[in-house]
Amino acid sequence: MATNVVGKFLIHDLHIHLRQGALMRAVTPTLNKAGIGAVFVMPNLKPPISTADQAVAYRSQLQALAPNVTFLMSLYLNPALTPAEIRKAKKAGVVGVKSYPRGVTTNSEGGIESYTVYYDVFKAMEEEDMVLNLHGEIPSDPDNDICVLNAEERFLSHLKQLHKDFPKLRIVLEHATTKAAVDAVKSLGPTVGCTITVHHLELIVDDWAGKCHNYCKPVAKYPHDRKALQDIIKQGHPRFFLGTDSAPHPRHMKETSVCAAGVYTGPHILAYLANALDSFGALDKLSQFGTEFGAKFYHLKESDIKNASAVTLVKEPFTIPQLVKYIDDEGVERELVPYRAGETLNFSILPVSNKRKASDE
Amino acid sequence: MATNVVGKFLIHDLHIHLRQGALMRAVTPTLNKAGIGAVFVMPNLKPPISTADQAVAYRSQLQALAPNVTFLMSLYLNPALTPAEIRKAKKAGVVGVKSYPRGVTTNSEGGIESYTVYYDVFKAMEEEDMVLNLHGEIPSDPDNDICVLNAEERFLSHLKQLHKDFPKLRIVLEHATTKAAVDAVKSLGPTVGCTITVHHLELIVDDWAGKCHNYCKPVAKYPHDRKALQDIIKQGHPRFFLGTDSAPHPRHMKETSVCAAGVYTGPHILAYLANALDSFGALDKLSQFGTEFGAKFYHLKESDIKNASAVTLVKEPFTIPQLVKYIDDEGVERELVPYRAGETLNFSILPVSNKRKASDE
């Protein structure tokens, strides 16, 4: 067995959806033994996490479910957000503010152009050293040839403008999927980072065309886009780091006429990541991409990760469970279908125990 | 009511999947009263229609189910096909030979990899004045940046080469989805035609992303591609004509983890077509695109359409049924979900009778 040990790892997932209610209680505890130090938690609940108080309350719920994990919280950018609330959030330990295109478009006909209405908030965030997290897509607009395939590329001018107007504001372009996005982030200054999911390192458009469990937003794009994501990691660029965008939806919301967008990678992040990196010769970048670069961008200190312990990654076959069952808020048994369900990865974390994992979860 | 009459129409669908067994028996009779004169029938059954005798037998089955409709039959291009079989097929009234690239759509595992091995067959087809029908996509190949989004554009060099080598062979590029394909067909000689589906006049990639009932191969592409398809019809180009690619799959094969490719438009072709054309100001092209251009390319004579009668199209609201039920070959009740199920179109054919239609089918 010893010859198959890759090493000990404690990774950070700087973009994750942990939901609320029964689904939150189902997915959050799986992080405890997953080798996760810190996670940056998305605020898109119903209702969205819009205030410091809400973020603190949500963090308490999550912390109780996964005591070993450090939860970095975010607010949902919205018109009610004020500089005063930003300062209050900072004091409460909130780390970032997430911008979704839809939230922006409700405020002006020009959609994403209306970032200017948030400039006083961004100014406060810059002063308080908070992070602005961008879902980097503009709304589809067929009259201007904009669809899900070029929505990210067409967004990049907004990223550049925001960075120009707030050069000291830390900005993360979330879940990049295109070569254009990689090139844009590379070209910008040290305050601009970028998360990359595991599944976007493996999928292209063919893999979600008619395959609902691989369907997420932003959609996976062309092979050359996937290669650009792989290459920037292989190069060890310090402003690109892991954010899985793990987004569980119950199976009946996926395998239906209108599929919920999201890929569920949460419970096996480290195994997926090792498998993906190894597939393009970048296993040696696991610590940098999965741990160090994200920690540095987010100013994570050793003391922040006080309770987490590293896990041992081994090169041993590991079969992803077909299903994860849970009881929803109405008491109905539901199922989650993990990414690559039923497939066997080349990596696992100790103790390797497929059968126990499958039934435990 | 009289003021809402658009006119009387008898259209031809030069690309349709009528399946076999119970599904064939469920979908074929709906053509009887649909205002369909002739249909060109795809040969991708299990096993494929590979010989003249098989095509004749299949035609007999279909004719019994829809006596008013003229069935133009095709063979599945395969290595066993000989010039002698081509001549036999011609004598038996078979009209075309369909080429599928390997693995790109339903039942295409036996598809072609190289056209040059078929040149003696194509020569015989040219001499016999048969039609070569091309599924115009090359297989995805990530190492060469080929995926479902550019598979059609990358195929076009093959179309051009075939036309150059067999200038008198009538060739149809089936179900074009891109501006590149429209431009290529336009640039070629009078023996090259092109079918366009109704759904590709309405859908872009956003419409099938996560929406299984709009997922088909080739996939709908960018807004500018959709506009190119609309524009060529609006221009009244005589080598572009209707081929719906209506492709029914039972619901449980669509709303699942790996969705069958195909959009089911068959029972309401004329209403869908009128609605689509009207949406971009081309309702006046209904006869040309839906009837005349296809008939001319396929050398259809009045005497070929002997039993069909035109139907009256009216501008009256028509709601597409949510489901069409049938009993499959194992005796299990199954459902088909028609294109735009539950949506209300602006056009119908007389008699307008939503309720009766929904239950009849």
TrEMBL record, chains A, B:
Gene Ontology molecular functions: dihydroorotase activity; metal ion binding
The Amidohydrolase-related domain, residue ranges: 13-300
InterPro entries cross-referenced by the UniProt entry: Amidohydro-rel, DHOdimr, Dihydroorotase_CS, Metal_Hydrolase
Enzyme Commission number(s) of this protein: 3.5.2.3
Keyword Membrane in record: no
Pathway noted in the entry: Pyrimidine metabolism; UMP biosynthesis via de novo pathway; (S)-dihydroorotate from bicarbonate: step 3/3
SUPFAM superfamilies: Metallo-dependent hydrolases
Database matches in HAMAP family: PyrC_classII
Homology family: Belongs to the metallo-dependent hydrolases superfamily. DHOase family. Class II DHOase subfamily.
NCBIfam families documented for this protein: pyrC_dimer
Stated name of the protein: dihydroorotase
UniProt source species: Rhizoclosmatium globosum
